[in-house]
Amino acid sequence: MKVKNSAGRIVETEIAGKTIKPFAGAKKHTYNSKVISLTEALKKCGIKDGDTLSFHHQLRNGDNIINMTLAAARDLGIKNIRMAQTAMFNVCEPVIDFIKEGVVNRIEGSINGIVGDYISKNPLSFPVVLRSHGGRWAAIKTNELHVDIAFIGASASDECGNCTGIFGESAFGPISYSQVDAMHADHVIVVTDNIVEYPCIQQEIQERHVDCVAEVDKIGDPKNITFGTTKITEDPMKLQIAHDCVDLMDAAGLIKDGMIFQSGAGGISLAAMKYLGERLEEKDIVASTATGGLTKLICDIYKAGRVKNIYYSQVFDDYSVKFIQEDLGLPADIGHYADPTSKGRTIDGLDTVVLGATEVDVNFNVNVNTHSDGRLLHGIGGHQDTAAGSSLCIISCPVFRKTTPIVREKVTTISTPGDVVDAIITNEGIAINPKRKDLLEKIKGKLDVVPIEDLKNTAYDATGGPQELEFTDELVGITKWFDGTILDVIKKVKE
Amino acid sequence: MKVKNSAGRIVETEIAGKTIKPFAGAKKHTYNSKVISLTEALKKCGIKDGDTLSFHHQLRNGDNIINMTLAAARDLGIKNIRMAQTAMFNVCEPVIDFIKEGVVNRIEGSINGIVGDYISKNPLSFPVVLRSHGGRWAAIKTNELHVDIAFIGASASDECGNCTGIFGESAFGPISYSQVDAMHADHVIVVTDNIVEYPCIQQEIQERHVDCVAEVDKIGDPKNITFGTTKITEDPMKLQIAHDCVDLMDAAGLIKDGMIFQSGAGGISLAAMKYLGERLEEKDIVASTATGGLTKLICDIYKAGRVKNIYYSQVFDDYSVKFIQEDLGLPADIGHYADPTSKGRTIDGLDTVVLGATEVDVNFNVNVNTHSDGRLLHGIGGHQDTAAGSSLCIISCPVFRKTTPIVREKVTTISTPGDVVDAIITNEGIAINPKRKDLLEKIKGKLDVVPIEDLKNTAYDATGGPQELEFTDELVGITKWFDGTILDVIKKVKE
Q: Residue A223, exposed/middle/buried by CB under 10 A (0-12, 13-18, 19+)?
């Protein structure tokens, strides 16, 4: 069939078997500022009962955004929000009140400290769902976790929503977590305390995804956004563990030109980076790339020319925030870093990573979520992702802390399965996952290893063994493997 | 229900009404080079008869990739390919043979010159579908145009597929067109002649989207990749038109601090940029942003401090290729620039754009696709997008060329509808779209305007009027408005 379209032309309505609509007129697109208040933004995005709201955690313990957003939602009479934050710190203690008031009734995202403690004792009607960084990205991408409104904190944004966390008074480092929220949420609100001239010159999130720019007084407290100067442990026992981590890398033949490495932000992991930097210097080796979280220690290795690229997804201290303002390096968003559904991830090239644990067990399973008293106090972070991505995943921990055995028969919660954990380095020796025969072969004659059971026995002898917990049937939370399957359940402990 | 998962934990199989799979084991992700030959890449991506293959045109008239890919497909016995290139130049003349051999039977994408001429005389069984830059992005994003295999030319790529067009011997500027192909095609092949150390430091396309990296001898001929030094017209008549363009901007009050401007790459448009730079200097004005294609003229204005940002989506000359290697500025991919389905586009803030035309008509419709003899010789480019995005869209052209009237009763093909065209500036005067009463008001007493009919009459008087074309019923192609509707049809001219 043919019709006359609005430009006066006779056009087909079907081509190659497909219906095609006639041109119905063109109009000018207009440029409008998207800047409004947070409450107006909530209304404009049609917030309603039961919505899922997402947040990133890059403002860490200085974050104002979660609290102020939930307060604004409450003032609008909203109930039964599902939170989908990437993580939440003690500054979010008011979330407990929002739960009590019925504003929040579900959480899919990491919780740390005070709120975790509360929920451990007062489970929500739906268990908290804990995913790794990469697992969360995949869940949002595949719509397993659908976000109604994404809130993206930015230390600078233009009035169209092009924004960044790299500069501005409240700078916190790259907005690495929220790109997937921006792409898949129904509505996107950039929350900022710093409207800059258009176009914002760093564009981690672009206007194409942004509905509103909510201008607020302060997105966070700069003092608490970054951890301050990250301190290396001074405990000789822990320093020894850190040193042994580097010895293991070396014995495994990984300390060589072009190596790719990462560490977590714990005291032992940081010390390991210091020793790694020294080892690179001693052996006159230039590593290729440091991935993951950026710290002053990594910046120092980079400045010394001992690693060519900083390929980071978050920034852990204020030194590093300032550092990347001068030399951006290669920021990698979490999808690039760890999306398990992608065709290639930054961390798949990782030679070695040093990570921590609250507990490990004789099957090399690692717990980073719960304490041995059963309380859910931490998120998974990138633990699973880097463990599976690295050739050599090293867990560093003491065999016991105070009266609690850290190496045990069974971890309280499995955060990362033993299948992808290669070595556990403790103050009482190094245990290698017996499945890694190749690794055992490589280090033979270079380093002493001990059976993991020996480490457990040492821990049990020193402490009298683990506290036996009695659980109720109430679910506090679940841990998921990054492919979306259920790895473990966290149950409420009997009081 | 509860089951024991592969980590030995008893877990729920349903939570909050949703089925949840038990953990079934974890394995290490591995890092593998993706570098193979082009033919191997085609096989690995499962190329088959009828597939849609996409390409970008940033290698312009130096492009080797389209020809070598189609040759490789032909050698594998593949038939009935649909091409979805962003544009195609004379270097792609061999495509005519691929059409004759049945390797290619459909084209959705811009064609220029020789191939366009051939198809105008020998229409394919399916009409060529012409979309603007933004319209193509939207069509791929919404799956109106589904790509089976995207081929992304890169002047540097690491072996994982992180790649760029910014540096390397065959550098051509940013890969701005292919991000949407990378995200939505079933398979993605980076084609490069320059494998660099991992990680590639400019990452316009990231490994997460890339299946294979096809290593070839030469992605293109550097001499023909960029146009060489872009020349400003020396024709005094055209220089006058260019000067009048700037006078109109000025009279409309748009030449002021913070202005955002763009021009096409034609001779008059380029001259307008030269005069605009001079006017900024004279009036001591600092513009905010130059968008669109980058040329030496824009770089000069930027270096002189008369425009703060270069927010470009392609690079038109080799001077600019080298310029951005030193100062990257703000590259904006085509989605950011012009995706009509997005929540905000670079060009929506555009104050003014100077564009060319093969024909214009008394309804301010513009033709950039066909010549007055009916042959399809050009793509739409960003013409529609910038016309609709800008506050003042200026079309610059002479009233006639040789014996052909350019201003006419009806354009041969509507590429951009008159609804979004504000002014037509010719050697015989300035016509303003009568719908733009506000603009007429603003320039009253500052500039003389003439009715568009007068310009048409002048053209007809000088040339004897347009050649009347007789068309067959065979469809050569269609033009689409960027919302996916059909704007016009291009029919075969009777021989």
A: exposed
